[in-house]
Design brief:
The structure is a single chain. The protein is α+β, with helices and mostly antiparallel strands. The chain has one domain. Helix content is 46%, strand content 22%. It is built from 2 helices and 3 strands, in the order H-E-E-E-H. It has a 3-stranded antiparallel β-sheet with strand order 1-2-3. A hairpin with a 2-residue loop joins strand 1 and strand 2. The longest helix is centred in the C-terminal third of the chain and has 20 residues. It is globular. The N and C termini lie far apart (27 Å).
Length: 81
């Protein structure tokens, strides 16, 4: 895979948030950056309080982490295929 960009992470973030919203959840995931590395946070519908969800990882690793989180979320929301 080529280099993971902020847009790549934002795209997976949007997919996850769409699933949460569609299923009536009042939380969102947000990718935030500090110290040169991104981390995922949970927020409520108003954007606070924020809680750490993932460790701070390089972008490529966080992309894989988000994809795995999305797969697990899909299993939990939709059930096994």
């Amino acid at each position: 895979m080529s280099r993971v960009t902020k847009e790549d992470l934002a795209q997976v973030e949007n997919v996850i948030n769409s699933k949460l919203e569609r299923n009536g959840y009042k939380v969102r995931v947000v990718v935030q950056y500090a110290y040169g590395r991104p981390r995922v946070h949970w927020t409520d519908e108003l954007g606070y309080p924020s809680r750490d969800l993932s460790p701070r990882l390089p972008s490529g690793e966080l992309y894989r982490w988000l994809c795995a989180f999305d797969a697990g979320l899909s299993l939990g929301i939709d059930g096994p295929a």
